[in-house]
Design goal:
The longest helix has 15 residues. By secondary structure, the protein is an alpha+beta fold. The protein has four helices and 15 strands. The chain has a single domain, classed as Jelly Rolls (Sandwich), CATH 2.60.120.200.
């Protein structure tokens, strides 16, 4: 076995919960693995056992691409080293956290990712989830994500929340003026996400992120840590699976499963 800051949105975060929706940690997590393997089809697997061929968008190979690599062509943000994808974002130079994605293509399904925060930067974090650039009315196609910080996990529906173009335009004026959001907008955005406690370390972990209907669930090492229901999770086509990495993260293995 081989020995890994999201741009957290400037919105009010709901009170931290130990586990959303009264889930049963071990049983629910194990059932998600069983659900993916039993009801689903493995549509993609990458163990990164190769060398990358440069710094630009498709340099990682095996169908991976980057929305940010061409912004800083002289800086290598993704390095394949002894079977590990080592992501080191040139966030300042690129004006954006490293964004790396792969085709997915499912309604219900999910991903299994082996990851590590290597401890090379303070506040290492990881945002991973799903994108559909073909859907209108959503900024950059951002649908829904799980976000791991050093102290917590957030599940967020961007499609019907902060990345909805109408909501985004209304919210931006208040941010520009450094004013509090109006009560109705603040309440709406709070409904679109949930945060649970989690303490990061520098060990390897297995993460499972699934969407089933209007529910998203995230488990680490067989323990369900967060689940949330929101209409955007039910988007009919998760075309891309993506990582957003503002600092450093190591990825050892990625599996994408389609249930339907």
């Amino acid at each position: 076995m081989k020995p890994i800051l999201p741009a957290i949105l400037a919105i009010s975060i709901p009170a931290i919960a130990l586990l959303a929706d009264d889930a049963k940690p071990a049983d629910s997590a194990k059932s998600d693995i069983a659900w993916l393997k039993g009801a689903g089809t493995l549509i993609f697997h990458d163990a990164f056992d190769r060398e990358e061929n440069g710094n630009l968008a498709a340099a990682i190979g095996n169908g991976w691409n980057s929305a940010t690599a061409d912004r800083v062509p002289a800086i290598q943000q993704a390095d394949l080293d002894e079977g590990i994808l080592k992501i080191a974002s040139a966030t300042k130079e690129a004006g954006h956290a490293a964004h790396i994605h792969h085709e997915a293509g499912f309604t219900d399904g999910g991903v299994v990712v082996r990851f590590r925060f290597p401890g090379l930067n303070a506040g290492e974090s990881l945002q991973l989830g799903f994108v559909d650039r073909e859907t209108k009315g959503i900024h950059a196609g951002h649908l829904c994500y799980g976000i791991l910080s050093q102290t917590g996990i957030t599940l967020v529906d961007h499609k019907t929340g902060v990345m909805n173009l109408n909501i985004r335009a209304r919210r931006q004026g208040y941010l520009d003026r450094k004013e509090p959001l109006p009560a109705d907008l603040d309440a709406l955005l709070k409904m679109k996400q949930v945060t649970a406690q989690w303490k990061a370390d520098n060990e390897w972990h297995e993460l499972v992120l699934v969407t089933e209907g209007d529910e998203m669930r995230l488990s680490i090492d067989g323990i369900l840590l967060a689940r949330h229901r929101s209409e955007g999770f039910a988007h009919p086509m998760k075309r891309w699976f993506s990582f957003l990495v503002p600092a450093t993260v190591w990825i050892d293995d990625v599996k994408i499963w389609k249930v339907n």
